[in-house]
Write a structure and sequence with these properties.
Blueprint: H1 6-25, H2 29-49, H3 62-67, H4 79-83, H5 100-109, H6 112-136, H7 147-150, H8 152-173, H9 181-195, H10 197-202, H11 215-223, E1 232-237, E2 247-250, E3 253-259, H12 276-289, H13 295-299, E4 304-310, H14 329-334, E5 339-342, E6 348-353, E7 360-362, H15 365-373, H16 376-380, E8 388-389, E9 401-404, E10 408-411, E11 419-423, E12 426-428, E13 431-433, E14 437-441, E15 446-452, H17 456-495, E16 497-501, E17 507-510
Parallel strand pairs: 1-4
Antiparallel strand pairs: 1-3, 2-3, 4-6, 5-6, 7-8, 7-10, 9-15, 10-14, 11-12, 11-15, 13-14, 16-17
Helix pairs in contact: 1-2, 1-6, 5-6, 5-8, 5-9, 6-8, 8-9
């Protein structure tokens, strides 16, 4: 759930359909209802266990963060592509559709509980396939998770159908009066090995035709040098290629801000996660409207060193079938005088901001003067190069120490009074800088350390997390301990003496 929250939607939808099919197929609605209640309870528990970062999905663009931002052009997958799982490089061949034969035949030839399970699998598959087809063409009033997530229940139902048809052939069909059920069941058994051929071919090396290196790994390898200071990367492009904590800018265009080129789930809880719309959107508006050709200087206080436009991820967008680049995106950034196109792989376009300021560092004289004056017009007209990195690697949980000279120390995060700079043991409070971030006056300089005073709520969250996960571990281990105690109890009872004879030749009769 922490890595793919859209799974929650699919689990709840599958549980609801499982409940409804129980009434249709004549199964126990009580058992199905208990299963649905169990799914809701498990989902609620998963939400609690993923607090507080799960609150990211409760924001105004939370649904887009769950299912992905809307794309400029829909997938428009046809029924055939959906049936054969025709998504990504591991798209299975046409033979995979043969596995639908036992899935659909199983309800026709099975009896009793096998009929109920087969009916559930068939109905769940049909509904999931219909939703996948409609969603890929944007024909639903509400955007649903991507096709691969919606087809996950179908793959599970295929396995159920295959198991049921084998059981039904041996129990319900074979030995009965000959009729249409025998050849139909036999035909289903024949299709099983043929339908599994594409699966075996795609999974033979365990990679499922996935790329050996991901877009995020390439970015980390190319842009991971922090010797000149910590920095941020603005990733902007098609929402299907912006894989980190994305924010919707416009239809078919999303962006994410990552630190030091590392696209991980930690970006969701970074200092920029809640303020991205307020700080980044105006900069993108300036680029889109052409109101400035020096957006690099506007981005400098936020430590944005690179702008990356992803082109190929070798999954959704390949060299043979690339996703279209959002119209005018490349040209808009290429027109900026302080952004320079950096040579990179064919999978992405990289612009470097020549005016960037390290996230933590000593400001140059010109930048220090501008940090107090504020105003975007004055900022655009000021040369901001020359700032030097200092206290590199500082985070809210890591506080390195370094000698700082006299001057103005820059911290490129939204203003937060919990950040405190101490020089020779004397605490210095932050001041607003560039209108968006903050700085500290170092006086005559000295041994400095930048600290963040975590709120009490953070420690309460940590304690609550520890208690919750400890209860989960105990809950998992408790049944095993209980079974072990029961076994020991019965073993002791078996060894208990039932008759004791005392005397010179005493003996004990044991049960």
């Amino acid at each position: 759930m922490a890595f793919s929250p859209s799974v929650v939607f699919v689990v709840l939808l599958s549980a609801l359909l499982w409940l409804l099919t129980a009434a249709i197929s004549g199964g126990s609605t009580r058992a199905a209802g208990l299963g649905f209640a169990g799914a809701i309870s498990a989902t609620a528990a998963a939400v609690v266990l993923n607090m507080p970062w799960i609150t990211r999905y409760l924001s105004h663009d939370g649904w887009s963060a769950i299912v992905g931002a809307p794309t400029h052009s829909p997938e428009n997958l046809g029924l055939w592509d959906v049936l054969r799982f025709g998504i990504g490089p591991a798209a299975l061949g046409g033979l995979i559709v043969l596995l639908y034969v036992p899935l659909l035949v199983a309800p026709l030839v099975s009896k009793n509980s096998r009929f109920i399970w087969a009916s559930r699998a068939a109905i769940l598959s049909i509904v999931s396939i219909a939703l996948a087809v409609l969603n890929s063409g944007n024909h639903l009033p509400l955007r649903l998770p991507e096709t691969g997530i919606l087809l996950a229940p179908v793959a599970s139902c295929m396995a159920i159908g295959a198991a049921i048809i084998v059981m039904a052939f041996g129990i319900d069909v074979r030995g009965g009066r000959f009729g249409w059920r025998q050849p139909l069941a036999l035909l289903s058994l024949v299709t099983l090995p043929l339908g599994l051929l594409p699966v075996a071919a795609a999974s033979s090396n365990g990679h499922w035709e996935q790329p050996s290196i991901t877009l995020a790994q390439q970015m980390k390898e190319l842009l991971g040098d922090t010797s000149q200071g910590d920095y941020r990367v603005l990733v902007i492009g098609d929402p299907r290629l912006v894989t980190s904590d994305q924010h919707l800018y416009d239809d078919g265009l999303a962006y994410a801000v990552v630190q030091n080129g590392d696209m991980t789930m930690l970006n969701q809880v970074s200092s920029m996660a809640d303020d991205a719309d307020n700080l980044i959107r105006p900069l993108l508006d300036a680029v889109a409207m052409g109101s400035t050709n020096r957006v690099g200087r506007l981005m400098a206080p936020l430590g944005i060193r690179y702008i990356v436009i992803p082109l190929l991820d070798r999954v959704r967008s390949t060299s043979n079938s690339p996703l279209p680049l959002p119209f005018g995106l490349r040209e808009a950034f290429a027109e900026q005088l302080d952004l320079h196109n950096v040579y990179g792989p064919s999978s992405m376009m990289i612009f470097e901001n020549s005016q960037w300021i390290p996230l933590t560092g000593m400001l140059s004289a010109a930048a220090a003067q501008q940090s107090s004056e504020g105003g975007s017009e004055a900022l655009v007209a000021t040369e901001l190069t020359g700032s030097l990195t200092a206290l590199n690697g500082t985070t809210s949980w890591s506080s390195p120490t370094q000698e700082l000279p006299a001057g103005r120390f820059h911290l490129g995060v939204p203003f937060d009074s919990r950040w405190t700079l101490s020089i020779d043991g004397q605490s210095i409070k932050p001041q607003a800088s560039f209108g968006t971030v903050m700085h500290y006056e170092t006086g005559v300089g000295g041994t400095a350390q930048l600290n963040y005073s975590n709120p009490v709520s953070r420690y309460l969250w940590i304690i609550m997390q520890l208690l919750l996960w400890a209860s989960v571990v105990v809950g998992i281990l408790q049944p095993n301990l209980r079974r072990r105690q029961v076994r020991l109890k019965f073993a002791a009872a078996e060894m208990q003496s039932v008759v004791s004879l005392s005397g010179n030749n005493s003996e004990t009769v044991e049960s």
